[in-house]
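quick q for whoever's on today - can somebody do inverse folding on this one?? i tried earlier but teh output was garbage lol. C-alpha cells:
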C-alpha cells in the first residue's frame, strides 16, 4: 500500500487544497474485506520530556479531519504481477485558515500527518504547512555607532570604537544582508576575531508555567580575523545569507501558534584574554510574502515565475530530526 501526495502539496498554506492518492496492491487486499480505506489528517504539537525523545511531556492535537475519497472505476494493470488488480483511491481536503507553521526543534515540533488504514495495514506521510507573513514595511538602512571600554588593571580603560551599517531590513529567506563596518581597536589587547551572525531564538511556554523554554541556534555567520592593538578593520558589503527558515512567528498571530520565533543579528568581538563582547544586537523581521513582488497566492508550481521556490529547512538538515519541513525561499 502506497500513499502519495501531489507535487503541489510539498508546501501548503491555510485554505489550500491537499490532493493525493492511495494505491492498494493486490497483496494488501482480502476477498472478504470490502470497505473503503480510512484516511485521516492531523496537526499536532509535541514536546519531549528528555533528550532521547523516548517520553512525551506535552501533546496538543489542534487539527483533525478526513478527506473526501473517490475510488477509481478501473482496476490498474501492469506487467508486474504484484500490481495486477490493484485499487486506486484519490482524495482531497481543504485546509482551514488558521493553521500554525510546521516547525522542528530538538525538544519538540509542530507537524502535520496524513495516514491511511486498510485491511489491518497503516501507512502515513508527513507534509509541511506554512503561514503567509507579510513584509509591510519598506527596506530600511540601519546605522549604529558604539564604544566599548575594555578594562585595564583596576582603574584604567581603553576604548574599542565601532560603526555599523546594515543595508536593509526586513527580509525574506534567500536574501543576503550586506554589512559595512569600521572597528578601531584602541585597547592594549588584540582582538582575536570578529564575528557577525544571525541567531534564531525559539520560545515555548509549557502548560501552567510563566517562563518559557528558550532555545537558540545560529543560522548564518561570517568571521573576520585579528585586529591588533592600535589598528582598525574595515568591512565592505560582507554578506550574511538568510537560508530556508520559518518566518518570524508570534503567538498573537494565530491562536494555534505554540512556538514564538524571532531573529537577531549580532556582531561580537573576542579579545586576546578570551573575553567576548557583543557590539551590536538588532532584531531582524523575517517574512515570506513580499509586496514588492507578486503575491504568493498562486500554486507552488508557478513560484518559478515570481522568484520563489520551496526548500528544505536549513537547520533540520544538520540536526538529528526525522522530518525536514519546507519553507519558501526567494531565488536570487
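ok took a stab at it. sequence:
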Amino acid at each position: 500500500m502506497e500513499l502519495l501526495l501531489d507535487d503541489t502539496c510539498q508546501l501548503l498554506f491555510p485554505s489550500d487544497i491537499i490532493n493525493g492518492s492511495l494505491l492498494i496492491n493486490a497483496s494488501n487486499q482480502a476477498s472478504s474485506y470490502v470497505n473503503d480505506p480510512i484516511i485521516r489528517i492531523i496537526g499536532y504539537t509535541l514536546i519531549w520530556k528528555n533528550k532521547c525523545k523516548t517520553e512525551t511531556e506535552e501533546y496538543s492535537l489542534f487539527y483533525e479531519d478526513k478527506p473526501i475519497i473517490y475510488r477509481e472505476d478501473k482496476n490498474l494493470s501492469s506487467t508486474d504481477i504484484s500490481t495486477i488488480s490493484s485499487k486506486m483511491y484519490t482524495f482531497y481536503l481543504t485546509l482551514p485558515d488558521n493553521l500554525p507553521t510546521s516547525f522542528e526543534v530538538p525538544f519538540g515540533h509542530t507537524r502535520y500527518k496524513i495516514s491511511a488504514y486498510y485491511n489491518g495495514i497503516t501507512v502515513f506521510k508527513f507534509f509541511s504547512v506554512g503561514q503567509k507573513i507579510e513584509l509591510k514595511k519598506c527596506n530600511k538602512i540601519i546605522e549604529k555607532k558604539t564604544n566599548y571600554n575594555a578594562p585595564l588593571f583596576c582603574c584604567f580603560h581603553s576604548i574599542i570604537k565601532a560603526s555599523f551599517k546594515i543595508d536593509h531590513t526586513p527580509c525574506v529567506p534567500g536574501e543576503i544582508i550586506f554589512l559595512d563596518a569600521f572597528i578601531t581597536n584602541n585597547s592594549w589587547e588584540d582582538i582575536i576575531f570578529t564575528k557577525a551572525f544571525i541567531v534564531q531564538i525559539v520560545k515555548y511556554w509549557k502548560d501552567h508555567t510563566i517562563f518559557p523554554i528558550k532555545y537558540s541556534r545560529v543560522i548564518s555567520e561570517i568571521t573576520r580575523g585579528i585586529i591588533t592593538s592600535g589598528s582598525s578593520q574595515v568591512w565592505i558589503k560582507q554578506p550574511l545569507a538568510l537560508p530556508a527558515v520559518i518566518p518570524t512567528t508570534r503567538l498573537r498571530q494565530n491562536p494555534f501558534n505554540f512556538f514564538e520565533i524571532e531573529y537577531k543579528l549580532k556582531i561580537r568581538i573576542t579579545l586576546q584574554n578570551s573575553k567576548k563582547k557583543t557590539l551590536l544586537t538588532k532584531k531582524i523581521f523575517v517574512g515570506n510574502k513580499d509586496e514588492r513582488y507578486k503575491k504568493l497566492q498562486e500554486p507552488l508550481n508557478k513560484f518559478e515565475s515570481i522568484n520563489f521556490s520551496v526548500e528544505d529547512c536549513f537547520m533540520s538538515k544538520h540536526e538529528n530530526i526525522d522530518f525536514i519541513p519546507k519553507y519558501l525561499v526567494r531565488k536570487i
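fwiw The chain has two domains: 2-129, 135-290. also The chain is about 0% helix and 50% strand. so keep that in mind when u check it
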